[in-house]
Amino acid sequence: MVRLVDIAKRANTSITTVSIVLGNRPNTVAISEGTRQAVLAAARELGYAPDMAARRLRGNGGGARAIVLAIAHPIDGRLSLISRIVGSVQRQLHALREDLVGIGVVQLIVETYELGKLHHLRGLSEPFWFNGLLVTNTAPEDDAYLEALTPSVPIVLFQRDTRHSAVNTDSELVGRLATQHLIDLGHRRIGLIAPDAGSQAQALRIRGFRETLRRVGLPPGPEAVAQGADWADGAYVAAQHLLSPAQGARPTALFASNDLLAIGAMRAIRDWGLRVPEDVAIVGCDDAEFAAYQEPPLTTVHLPIEEMAARATTILLDLIRQRATPPIQETFPAHLVVRRSSGPPTE
Fold first, then answer.
1. pTM value?
2. What range defines the domain where residue 326 resides?
3. Which positions ≥6 away from 51 have C-beta within 8 Å?
């Protein structure tokens, strides 16, 4: 078994320094970044494996213990989604309070990262900023990083196909449900609005949209990309482009691959002097809390975000407390919620 003294000799530093770096403990003596990296490199080279059971349930010297859970989400326009996830995690922790009484307390923190730069988040590849991590809304570069990663703490990914533990929905089915609904209403010119920061889930929804059109023999619909982090604003510009007479025959229906995009597109439709759904029907995705309160109320594909986040919380706690063996992967059903923003074409 690799000991701290072995790592100290390899890194040419003291056992105390090694303990501070590997334990991520506060210290009164500044440790240079070079020394910290040397310790981490020595630990990796020697195959150091810390006592995870002891580290994940850390004491404060008085017998009380705590678990620190982190939720990592990107810095962009997805705050409505992360608020649903955080709220559900908090409610699940409250529901599990009796089961967690022996731990003392569970602390919840929210970490942010830039899309494509999840690898900069401390605690994923080196010990120990938190005891477990729920990761949401990763970019393709982040997905590739995670697939190659041996994490230092248990992780659960949100709405991703992965080798790690995850809660997910069938995102391709989501695209098919929305598109088939519009086809069943009689639409034959169906456009798509999707974000430029393409995640795995978004890519699968787009695939479902395209495959559904192809399967029924319809030509590919016009597509536009919502640029930037402000999805509603980007979708407004994208929809203005799709609806412009310069683009030829306008689509009679739009599928927006999330509800924020749908809201921006609805505003663009109205600003062209058109009506929803009489002139342009629209279907979103997520069933965000504001979807039912638009005018007209938004037809959307409901994703069980709250149920998924609650289950992810339980999975993460079970992994931290070594009550389960990873990976634990569960898929949740999605379903169409029909409201007044979708209707048959009037042409």
1. 0.80
2. 56-168+305-331
3. none
